[in-house]
Amino acid sequence: MFKLVKIAVRNLLRYKRRTLLTFSLIAVGVTFVLVFVSSSSAFKNLMIGQITDSMLGHIQVHKQGYMASIDSLPLTLNLSPKNMKKLEKAINSVPGIEAFSPRIKFAGMFSNFIETTNIRINGVYSDKETAVAPLLPGRVKKGEKVIKKGEIFIPELLAKGMKVKLGDTIVIIATNRDGSVNGKQFTVGAVIESVTGPGGRDGYMHIDDARELLRMEQLEISEIAIRLSDFDKLHNVSVGLTSALSEETNKAGKPIFDVRTWEDLSPFYNVARMIDIMTFFIKLMLIAIVLISVMNVMIMAIFERIREIGTMAAIGTKPGKILFLFLIEGFFLGVFGTIVGIIFTSLATYTINAVGISFNFGRQVGLILSPRLEMGQIFLISSIVIVVSVLAALQPAFKASRMEPINALRHV
Amino acid sequence: MSLISAQDLTKVYSLGELRVEALKSVSFTVEPSSFVSFVGPSGSGKTTLLNLIGCLDRPTSGSLTVAGAVISSLSRREAADFRGRNLGFIFQDFNLMPVLTVYENVEYPLLVVQNVVAAERKKRILSLLDTVGMLDQKDKYPDQISGGQKQRVAVARALVTNASLVLADEPTANLDSKTAFMVIDIMHKMKDELGVTFIFSTHDRKIVGEVETIYTLTDGMITGKAAGKGGRYV
Fold first, then answer.
1. CATH number assigned to the domain comprising residue B151
2. Which residues of chain A from 286 to 305 reach within 8 Å of chain B, CB to CB?
3. pTM above 0.80, yes or no
4. pLDDT digits (tens, 9 = 90+) for A43-102
5. A308 lies within 8 A of chain B by CB
6. Of A4, A315, A319, the CB nearest to B109
7. C-alpha angle with apex A357: A265 to A37, nearest 5 degrees?
8. Per the domain annotation, does B11 fall within a domain?
């Protein structure tokens, strides 16, 4: 075994230029793919982080049917205190949930006493909301970062359009669930940055103010936003929560609660999927590069060494060992190419991070792309390259092992 | 019991519609520890005959027994195994592996084919390299030694497995006379010391007489049998 490995390595070193060229092709392929994967993954994770941490949360739970009418923010589909208790109990029973924030979502009229426009508002507990959407305080461009009673956070575009400043008094008028209208004065406590995505241009007020404005006798929640301690366990937690709530049914026997992950709530999920599909095709290109390079080298190597193969067979080397020898050569082409590729990728990602490539996403400007080499991706790409290298060597190696020694020895 | 026994051995090559009879009902025997040469012009069937004896090819008809094995009944894998255990080969172009040193070339069949343990391997290799006068060149690669030296390494490689039969196809064709005689001398010595049978094909008249038995092949048939200098059989 060790001897065959030694012979294989020496055979690779025998045609230095050709081997170097193949190594380079594989290394460049690995580098491009890993840099693309790490950059696209960094972009995707940054965007998902922006969307979930700014307003959405990782998971949301609504009353069944609410999502179908979410554009009208129906107060009639809010969760009752009894259902809220059931939901909180379920949340506490599922591991991996870091925080949750109850929200009352409603649409209202915003008046600065001169002009009136519409606004979507979230009634929240400031501390709970910040625990679920930790980037919310960072969105505050002017004013306090804590949502206090009697104050309202308004999106910057609305503030600009309605010529409203920090500390101004405004009026919010809203229709409650039985159709009556109520109004309440608020002080502008903060002007917040708008972000891309659902809820990115909503205003915020304290949940008690929302309850008072909507004349709720008891607290009725539109949704609960949830933050996980480990984002990678999104689907496990979602399934766990759905399972924990599955027995909660209404009189018709249908489930009361509707559990949705950010993927169901944000259109950016389609962009993320598109990135994944592009990554998949880039990986296919890498496979093609490796396959063609290694196969080409192995076919050439076998063609040039036919007499040698004949000699090996003549002196009693079994076909399996000849096959193995060429597979080892393919294997080492893949291994060395991958190692060099990983070194190149490390240098490339270090350079990208050092240079600091910035980009804008919607109204968010100056986001910095921070590609990071993940062990999982390195392992995956390395495995693909090495397996494909061996597979590419398989056909030529098989051909070599099946050569009749007499024909091989006659070869000129 | 004969080491080789051939009866009505025939080999026909088909090249499209053309049939070439390379060997025509050849019969002969070779005793153990003998030194035999097949001579004849190009196309007379020497190499074909050596290929059949060496299990590298199969006869079209007739029977051939080598070291107790019926050659035509061996599978591909069995033939490889048989060659590895019983036969040694010396080629006209030496056919040493260019990526292996002299020592490693001789070691190859012991390591890859016979799986001999390290200590035994080393003992056999050093002894044979000493015998063929290549011990001081053991760390050189084939492209660093002369043709004669390469052939001496090839002789050592053929013998290191304790083969009972060594087949050499035109082993001196690429060597000058002095070196050719030196290689033949080594073969003689090995035959006497180890009891190995050497069979080689040649049309080099100078060295033909060095063997014990000379078979002349013409157009695929044995047309003569004579004794050489060291002959014990006429």
1. 3.40.50.300
2. none
3. no
4. 888 888 888 888 889 999 999 888 888 878 888 889 999 999 999 999 999 999 999 999
5. yes
6. A315
7. 60
8. no
